[in-house]
Amino acid sequence: MRVVFMGTPDIAATCLERLLAAKIDVVAVYTKIDTPQNRGMKLTPSPVKQVAVQAGIPVIQPATFKDETVIEELRELKPDVITAVAYGKILPPAVLEIPSMGCINIHASILPQLRGSGPVQWAILRGMQETGVTAMYMAPEMDTGDMIEIRRTPIDPEENAQSLLDRLANMGADLLVDTLHRLAQGSPLEAQKQNDAEATYAPMLDKTLCPIDWEKTPQEIKDHIRGLDPWPVATMSLNGKRFRVYQAALTDKKTDAAPGTALGVTKTGLEMACGGGGVLEIRTLQADGGKRMAAPDYFRGHPLATS
To answer: Taking the complete model, does pTM exceed 0.90, yes or no?
Structure first.
């Protein structure tokens, strides 16, 4: 079975590594073009490209599938199946029609919940207690294809988007390998249509999401902090300084202070007033221009000015 793999970030790289370990014949890899990163703006290959190059697999990086020569190049690979994991491009019907066994996508949510580019982060941001991975046949519209299998997992109340993404990457990789093995063995893959009426969306993250809204409850703010770690990271302003916030803990304390008021520093963190009279303890933060550190350590050297 000839497989063309399409993907870009770490979750896709994990899936590609698992396919190669399972001796699945990946004849080519498609990934997004190299992007400039860091202060030097050096062109950096995607995690998927790095895995493919190391494995000696041809890498193709089309800017668009609107070019007929790009589609013809894909046809010439004669794939039995195309697999996609967080590729970052919508495949047109002309591409979806190429493989005889179809195009299979692994999406990091329980579809039709959280269609879109940020399902892992939004699962935490919205306070969900469960998520998962879905194998589906691809359709021209984003994340709307018929579902082959869903695997579920509880969301740990302390894990952030990165740790959840790492878990889902491994779950998705196992699901993709199992799905392709079933296809190779000729097993029928029964697929179920999605209920569009139940669909929710997980739009792309950006830095407008960063500022903490202290009018929200402590639990909502904690979820906000967890969901934006490691990027774009929740932020707060205090005494004229901006901080990135990485970790927080719930408390059973109550306060009459206005939301956003700094209440004091304990041995374990900075207590902040939240909506509904709740108190949240900020455990780990980073001042602009400074290092990431435990809140008590920071305020030991920068005494907190409270009203």
So the answer is: yes
